[in-house]
Specification:
alpha/beta; Rossmann fold; three-stranded mixed sheet; binds guanosine-5'-diphosphate-beta-L-fucopyranose
Length: about 325
Amino acid sequence: MPSEGFPLAGKRVWVAGHRGMVGSALVRRLEREACTILTAGRTELDLRRQDAVERWMMAHRPDAIFLAAAKVGGILANDRAPADFLYDNLLIEANVVEAAYRTGVGKLMLLGSSCIYPKSADQPISEDALLTGPLEPTNQWYAIAKIAGIKLCQAYRRQHGCDFISVMPANLYGPGDNFDLETSHVLPALIRKAHAAKLSNADTLEIWGSGTPRREFLHVDDLADACVHLMSIYSQDCPVNIGFGVDIPILDLARLVAEVVGFEGTLRCDPTKPDGTPRKLLDSRRLRATGWQPRIGLRDGIAQVYAHYQQQMQPCVS
Ligand code: GFB
């Protein structure tokens, strides 16, 4: 892989979306680099407003941008708010990418998602599977917006020579996740449900869908580390998958969460809830070829997130 080299030392680096789980992990990771970290809160800057984004960029002049800001959510949130997932994400990406071009930003990384790939893509899913088949209906709106983001990076590279790249993470989890049962992803939902079931001595823990879909989970601190690594060395238009390398059926994930949390009852599937994509395991060979490896195993990662969750809950429990 040809490497242009873009060291972050001495640079002004904007983490767009720094309050989210991914953005805050990026800030934690960038604190170890000799760069200046720029952030903008939601009240200061609405990324869906083109003028505001351009004004902010003109005033703050980042050299590099991690575009982690996005409207995100789990399978039900995606299904129930298609307009928000499509509109918000399209605007955020278009505004930041265009302003980055206009203000001469040296490098931009757009964070996508493994759900951009076709529902029936061959496993593990290589970057070449993009746009080779129909998407999973529950999250097609979010996926279309993220595909547009990849295409924006490619188009600005082709037309204007901008060094804009994109990465596609596996299903993420970590500290700062959303634990709202209606809008969250599966892992924080299971942690919350297992914890509540343990405290109330409930007999069962409910799992949405059939429990058979398989997902690949990556700790957000591993993701942040891979992003900083790729920002420095990767400079091509093809997106790069960032995965852990192993997937697990949702039922086994629920068993693991129950074990870590200490819930000893039974697991019950709710077939009225959607399964989504049957399997999403990324082919991360392109990334591995650069020498990067994830470090946080799933059991340890879940234990860490559960500890965070308990700390967060402390005032309510006591
Ligand atoms: O994490 P999740 O919502 O996202 O669901 P996706 C993964 C699987 O876990 C699905 C099942 O098969 C769910 O039915 N599941 C079981 C649960 N119990 C629960 C629960 O209590 N809550 C939730 N949320 N799921 C999302 C996309 O898809 O993945 C986003 O909708 C994004 O756009 C994200 O791409 C990474 O993996 O199905």
